[in-house]
Every structure is written in structure tokens, then in C-alpha cells.
Specification:
Blueprint (H helix, E strand, L loop, with lengths): L11 H16 L7 H17 L4 E6 L2 H4 L9 E2 L6 E10 L1 H5 L6 E8 L11 E7 L13 H12 L7 E5 L5 H10 L2 E5 L3 H9 L7 E7 H14 L2 E6 L4 H9 L7 E3 H4 L5 E7 L10 E3 L2 E10 L4 E10 L6
Parallel strand pairs: 1-3, 6-7, 6-8
Antiparallel strand pairs: 1-2, 3-4, 4-11, 5-8, 5-9, 9-10, 11-13, 12-13, 13-14
Helix pairs in contact: 1-2, 5-6, 7-8
């Protein structure tokens, strides 16, 4: 990782316009059962809006490598080239399956940091993760037993373990994790998709979630780390190869599979910006609401340097803006 440069302006609200455009475009196909169409429409809208921004951007986490999308690929240069040099991480729709099925909880997401600040381990697609908010940021250890982590998190938050809620992706690979959480006495919130939303909920006060645990996408872990840099939470991740073939390939590429990636290892520095807009209404954000000639959106914008979190409600007049 190179030394990050300094960004002298707040990009957060510019990024909200990017996620708004992606959410509005993708939500037109909500419930139509076409996951690829949802994703591609969001990618196209996000790329168009990003291309007009005053910045010299490089996509560090995009769609091309993992999902074989034709645009917003890793390494793509984007922006008008006139502004600050930045790294960009995008998830045009976190929860494409959710949105394609008309289910709640899909959001459009982007994170930006100073050039050289983002590090996405590319040797494996998945990582084991634990993420918490500010109160428990020093209480987690991904190598510790589940019960120990929950006891430490509960103590940091002034709760009983039985009062904690752990958010976990509902996957067969988490059978033992779920049993360990139950044995420890904590509550569980299972989700079908939406790894980024889960990480945000684990870190945000009043969300009803205390900790994210389990295995999810590596790029999503970096995006969550960007958000946590803004609101003061913490994440720890460790590579999780899906099979021996992926394990051997990762080792051959020089990966240290025992390495624990902390928040600063994934996204460093004080110049980190994060934005998300609801696509389909969920626990965190309301979805796009269309009306005659326009739409309403609900977003959040964050900046690490100030620790500011803004909730943004926007009314869009399509007659005055090309979306």
C-alpha cells in the first residue's frame, strides 16, 4: 500500500448523487427476476455519473473481475481528471438478487479514499469477518472463540450476552458459527444477502444489531471498512479459501492465509468517504419511491475526517435532470 495523499474537499455529497443515480436506474427493474439487468443498469448509471466528477479516480474494487461486468472494472480510470487522486470501491447494488426478486434491503454503494489508501486482498474471493461499532472496536479478536468475542463485546457495550444481536448471512457454511452463537446465548439475525448493509448495521447506533460475524465477499469487507473508518467502528478479516484449489492458488500467489486484516489494513487514512442510497426499502434505508415525473430517494453520506454522518432525503424532478 502506498502512502495516501490528502483530499482537500468533501466528496461525500457528490458520491450521494452517484448512488442515487444507480439506485433509481436499477429499481426500475425491481422484481423482474433479472439479476444481471439490475446490476448492469446500476453499473451504467453509476459510471456515467462518476465520469463527470472532478477527480482523478482509479477503480480498486469494481464489477468486472468478480461478476464479469463490462464496466467499472478493477483498474479503470474514471472521473474528469481535474480533481484529487482517489481510489474508488463500488458495489452498484449490494443485494442484486434481493432487488431482482422485489425483496427488501438492496442498496447502491460507493466508497472513495485518497490514492493508495485501499487494499483489497485479491487472492481469495471470501473472507471470515467480524465487525462492530465504536463502543466495541477494541473488544474483538477474529482468532478468539465466538463465546469470548461475544462476552467481550457485551462488556464493552454494557450489555448481557443475551442482549446482543449477531447478524449472519444464512449460508450452509455458517452452521457451526450459528451453533456457537446460540450456545453463547446471543440473539441472531439471519439475512439472505446484503453483506455491506450487515456491516453497516453492526456499527451504527440504534440499528438493533451489535456485531457482524461470518464469511462474506472480500470486496464487501473493504467497502465496510471504509464506512467504519467514517463512523469509528472496526472490522477484522481473514482469508477463507473456498476449496483446496483456491487455497493452493492463493499460497502460490504469496498470500498469507493466517494474516488478520484490521480496518486500517483495508482502508487507511483520514480522507475516506462513503455513500449509500436505498434501492428497495430495508432496515437501514428506504427504497426509491417513484411518482409522476420524478422519484424520492433516501441516502446516507459519511466522511472520516469529520466523523460526519448525514441522512439525505432527495426529491428528483426528471424533467429537470437526465437520470
Amino acid at each position: 500500500m502506498t502512502t495516501p495523499s490528502t483530499i482537500d474537499r468533501n466528496l461525500a455529497m457528490d458520491l450521494v448523487r452517484v448512488t442515487e443515480s444507480a439506485a433509481i436506474a436499477a429499481t426500475r427493474h425491481m422484481g423482474q427476476g433479472d439479476k444481471e439487468l439490475v446490476d448492469q443498469t446500476a453499473v451504467d448509471a453509476m459510471r456515467l455519473t462518476l465520469g463527470a466528477m472532478a477527480m482523478d479516480g482509479v477503480v480498486v474494487i469494481g464489477e468486472g473481475e468478480k461478476d464479469e461486468a463490462p464496466m467499472l472494472y478493477n483498474g479503470e480510470e474514471i472521473g474528469d481528471g481535474s480533481g484529487p487522486a482517489v481510489d474508488i470501491a463500488v458495489d452498484p447494488i449490494d443485494g442484486t438478487t434481493l432487488l431482482s426478486k422485489g425483496l427488501p434491503g438492496a442498496i447502491a454503494v460507493i466508497a472513495v479514499a485518497a490514492r493508495g489508501a485501499m487494499n483489497c486482498p485479491r487472492e481469495v474471493f471470501y473472507m471470515n469477518k467480524i465487525a462492530v461499532g465504536k463502543e466495541a472496536r477494541d473488544a474483538i479478536d477474529i482468532n478468539a472463540p465466538v463465546e469470548t468475542n461475544l462476552q467481550n463485546i457485551a462488556a464493552a457495550k454494557g450489555k448481557e450476552v443475551s442482549e446482543l444481536t449477531v447478524i449472519v448471512l444464512d449460508r450452509p457454511r455458517h452452521a457451526q458459527l450459528l451453533q456457537d452463537i446460540r450456545n453463547a446465548g446471543a440473539r441472531i439475525k439471519l439475512i439472505t444477502d446484503g453483506d455491506v448493509v450487515a456491516g453497516l448495521q453492526a456499527a451504527m447506533p440504534g440499528s438493533g444489531v451489535d456485531v457482524l460475524m461470518g464469511i462474506g465477499g472480500t470486496p464487501e469487507g473493504v467497502i465496510v471498512a471504509a464506512a467504519l473508518q467514517c463512523i469509528g467502528g472496526a472490522i477484522q478479516c481473514q482469508a477463507w479459501p473456498r476449496d483446496d484449489k483456491e487455497r493452493d492458488a492463493a499460497v502460490a500467489a504469496g498470500a498469507d492465509l493466517s494474516k488478520v486484516y484490521a480496518t486500517d489494513d483495508l482502508v487507511a487514512g483520514e480522507d475516506v468517504f462513503f455513500a449509500a442510497t436505498g434501492a428497495s426499502t430495508g432496515d437501514l434505508l428506504r427504497g426509491v419511491n417513484f411518482f409522476s415525473g420524478g422519484a424520492q430517494t433516501h441516502s446516507l453520506a459519511m466522511r472520516s475526517r469529520s466523523g460526519t454522518l448525514r441522512w439525505v432525503e432527495t426529491t428528483h424532478d426528471f424533467a429537470r435532470r437526465d437520470i
